Amino acid sequence: MGKRGMQTRIGVIAELALGAAAGAISRLLTTPVSVVTTRRQTQNGTTNSGVVRDILRTYGVAGFWRGFPASLVLTVNPAITYGLYAWVQGRATLSPEQAFLVGAATKAAATIVTYPYIMAKVRMQWRAPQDLSLPGDSSRSITYSSAGDVLQKVLQTEGVRGLYAGLEAQLLKAVLCQGILFVSKDWFESVWRSALKFPKH
């Protein structure tokens, strides 16, 4: 492996590591907001204060971080996206159209890999439904104790297809947002460098 190839490989690894670390810190700080938001979106006639009281009463303070382990796994999503994009960008100068396509493709790959945990995080943060029961045992409501528990029960009740329920909509949103983001990023970077006459590395 040549010197340039080694530098590129180290650069990609650094992108992945920094992306994952930044994502973990962000998830730690924003998970309580995500939990409350999810409850508000899935429960009728509730208020923010009512949701907060319900979480505290049912789970205690730790309830505001339900789904956090799954969120940690999801930090690899942007890390994969930016790492792959940086790897491609280090090998070729991308036109706006190519930047959009590469950004969309890398985000699609990351989303497909991590989608079961996206689903698990949402189900952990959603108030456990009391009207759903496991097949053959109507006396047991489906409740979740961890992301792994979500995945196991979804496989049991819905099969492999259940792990990817809603993937199409998530992919559409993700690839459009990420493609536009990378095109905008490259355009602003180009304008910035031209304005300040910075050499492009």
Brief characterization of the structure:
The chain is mostly helical. 74% of the residues lie in helices and 3% in strands. It is built from 8 helices and 2 strands.
Task: Using brief descriptors, characterize the structure shown.
single chain, 201 residues, mainly alpha, 8 helices, 74% helix
How would you describe this protein?
This protein is mainly alpha-helical and 201 residues long. The chain is built from 8 helices and 2 strands; from the N terminus they run αααααββααα. The protein has helices at residues 3-42, 48-59, 68-73, 76-89, 96-125, 147-158, 160-163, 167-196; strands spanning 133-134, 137-141. The radius of gyration is 21 Å and the shape is elongated. Mean pLDDT is 78; it is low at 1-7, 128-134 and 136-140.
Number of separate helices: 8
Number of DSSP-assigned strands = 2
**Helix-strand makeup class:** mainly alpha
Largest sheet: 2 strands, antiparallel
How do the strands line up in the largest sheet?
1-2
End-to-end distance: 21 Å
Extract low-pLDDT stretches. Answer: 1-7, 128-134, 136-140
Radius of gyration computed on alpha carbons: 21 Å
Give the overall form.
Answer: elongated
What would the average pLDDT be, to the nearest integer?
A: 78
Helix % is over 70%
Q: Approximately how much beta-strand content do the residues carry?
A: under 5%
Order of helices and strands: HHHHHEEHHH
